[in-house]
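Tutorial, part two.
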Amino acid sequence: MNATVPTAAKVPDTRGLAGQTAGETAICEVNQTQLVYRGYEIADLAANASFDEVAFLLLVGHKPSASETAEFMCEQGSMRAIPASVRDAIVGIVQASPQANPMSILRTGVSLLSHLDCECESNDPAAELRKSKRLLAQIPTIIGVCEHARAGKTPVEPDATLSHAANLLWCITGKKPDALTARVMDVSLVLYAEHDFNASTFAARVIASTETDLHSAICGAIGALKGPLHGGANEMAMEMLKDIDADCAGGAMDVEAWMKRAFAEKRKLMGFGHRVYKNGDHRAPILRSWGLKLVPGLGASGQKWFDLGDAVQAIMLRDKAIHPNVDFPCGITYFCMGIPVPQYTPIFVASRITGWAAHVMEQHANNRIIRPLATYSGPAVHSWCA
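Running the prediction step on this input gives:
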C-alpha cells in the first residue's frame, strides 16, 4: 500500500501584517459585525451622538455629560484661531505652488503649529490632552485657509459659536451650513473618527513609541492617510464616478460597459473592499442614508450621483462579490455638499485627529518601542573579497 503524501500547508499571506495582532487598545474594537468606540457601537453613535460628544469620548475617555459637552464645545471654539504666521505660510505655499497637495499643506500646518506650542515637547498626560484639543480645534482652520487660498479668496475666520462640523463647513466654503447639511457632515465625522490599528493610526503609535512628541506622531499619521489606499480613497472614488459620468454622456457607453472595460483593464476601483470587513463596511449604508437626505434640496443633480453610485455598487457586488466601504458614499455625499474633491481627505483628518491623539496618549501611557522582526529574503552570506 502506498503511503499518503501529506499536502503542504498553505502559508498565509501576512504581507502588510494581514491577520496579525500588533497590540491591544481600550479605544476601539473592529470586527465583522461591529465598530465600537470605548464601548459604544457606531450605529448608536451616528444616530444619537454629535461629533463633539464623540471627540470628548475618544480624547477624555468617557461619555460626556451635558455640562461637559457644553464646556468642551466652548473650549474648542476659543482655540480655533491659528497664528498669523501659520496662516500666511499656508497662503504662501499655495501661491508659490498651486498644485501642492492639500494633505501635504495640512501636514506642514500641523508641523508649524508645533513650533508655536509651548507644550510641544511635553508628553505629560495633561499636556498631551491639551495639545490634542488644540489640534482638533485648529485643523479645520488650516483646511479652510488652504481651500480659500487655492480659490484665490481671503480665508474666513473660524466661528466659535458653531459645532465642529458646522465650523469645518464654514471654514471650507465660507457659507454657514443649514442644519441638515451640518448634521450630515457631523455624522460623517463620527463614522471616520476612529478605526483601531489602521495604517495611519499604527504609524502614529510607532512614532509615539519612540517617545517623541504628539505633533510629530500626528504629522506622520497625516502622511500615511494621504495615500490613495487609505484616506485618499474617497477622493478617487468620486473621481471615478465623474469619469463614468463623462464617458457615458451621450449614450456611447453605459455603466455596464464601463465596468466591463474597467474589469478587463484590471483597473483598481476605489471605495470598494476592506482589509477587515469581508461582508461589508457597516459605516457605508449609514453614510449613504444620511447623504440621501440631501437629495430633495438638490434635485436631479444630486440624485444622479447616488443613482450612478448604486449602479456601480450593484455591479461590483454581482460580478466581484465586493462591497463598498465608507469612502464610496462619502465621496458622493461630500460632492453633493459642494465640497471641493481635494479637501475630502483633509476633512478625514479633521475627524480622525481624535482617534490618532487618543492612540498616541494611550501608547505613551504604557509604552514599549514598537520594533518588529523581519524575515530576510536576500542573498546568502558571502565574502566581500571573493
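Strands lie at 28-30, 35-37, 40-41. In part three we will examine how such features are distributed along the chain.
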